[in-house]
Amino acid sequence: MKKVIMDVDTGIDDALAIMYGLESDALEFLGITTVDGNVPLDMVNRNTLKVLSMLGREDVPVFSGAAGPLMKPSRHVHHIHGEDGLGGALIDYPYENMCEAQFAPDFIVEAARHHPGEVTLIAVGPLTNVALAFKQEPLLGELLKEVVIMGGIVSRAGQGNSGPNSEFNIFTDAEAARIVIHGGANVTLVGLDVTKQAVLTARDIETLKGSKYYDFIKQSTEIYRTFSMDKFGLDGCALHDPLAVGFALNRGFLRTEHHYVDVDTVSPLNYGQTVCDFGGLWGEEPNVNVSLEVDSARFVEDFLNVMKNASGKI
Q1: Which stretches make up the Inosine/uridine-preferring nucleoside hydrolase domain (predicted)?
Q2: Single pTM value for the model
């Protein structure tokens, strides 16, 4: 199985991504690292531990990471993920598992050194932990097999979700994102170009009725779907983070191209923009696989099948 580390800021779609990855039985989770993002770090830790407890996977170690961006104040989005970060779905859920003592960036470096060329790092939150790991180990890009990032937007100008041309994870810590993008790793950017097309609708959720996670998925996504309905007229939840896991599971879900990408950390208009040089005007070597098309129907079907086939009771 493919060895993975997931770096998360566990809100609703992070939880779905963790569930998808673990229930797929195709990925070997070396650990999960947490970072401040959708909600504050202590809430991210609590949510991650609760989700693992719900899955019966307390064996997966969780490593607490950065409590805020490298250079900016924290920025949270409770209006999308709820006051607890999971739409109230697990507020009273019991859990006894705890975070490990080791700092998340230290764990990332240690795991990469212990398994050189084998570890896929799936980062679905702000890239603060990952940047700190790259600064600690300059050869980390060579030690990791690949880095799959849910973040950015490259081909759909004006359709960002934190600025007209910026996506939340990159915008939250653009300085960290720039370090990672230029860190020499095999990077794939799974951005809003494709994730906004991968939507879990209310009708999709109803196909899960009677399955293990139906209640959790329906309740947790309700606030997310309400936000989508109010803003976009769509009763659905974009599967941003699960699609990054989906790419790790099946390359066929996405069409990517290799281009040079940089991150804007200066402009007041476009801070956090992932600027892709499609025409090679800068003459730089390509450094990122950018996702441009998604087979959304096949991906959503796979996500639903994995959820339907999950065994046992919560």
Answers
A1: 4-301
A2: 0.97
Backbone dihedral region for residue 87 (phi beyond 0: left; psi -120 to 50: alpha; all else: beta): left
Phi, psi of 120 (to 5 degrees): -95, 120
**CA separation for the pair 190, 249 (Å, rounded):** 13
Q: What is the CATH number of the domain that holds 112?
A: 3.90.245.10
- Residue linked to tokens 């409770």: 78
* Beta-sheet pairing, 236-238 with 119-123: unpaired
Per residue in 25-36, pLDDT (tens digit) is 999 999 999 999
The domain total for the chain is 1
Give the pLDDT band of residue 127 (cuts 50, 70, 90). Answer: very high
Percent of the chain at pLDDT > 90 equals: 92
State yes or no: is 9 an active-site residue. Answer: yes
Question: Is residue 203 domain-resident?
Answer: yes
Q: Is the residue at 262 inside a domain?
A: yes
Domain for residue 232, yes or no?
A: yes
Q: Where are the beta strands (DSSP E) in 146-304?
A: 146-150, 187-190, 199-201, 236-238, 254-263, 274-277, 288-294
Find the domain containing 28 and state its range. Answer: 2-308
Query: What distance in Å separates the CA atoms of residue 86 and residue 80, rounded to the nearest whole number?
Result: 9
Q: Which of 7, 9, 204, 262 is catalytic?
A: 9
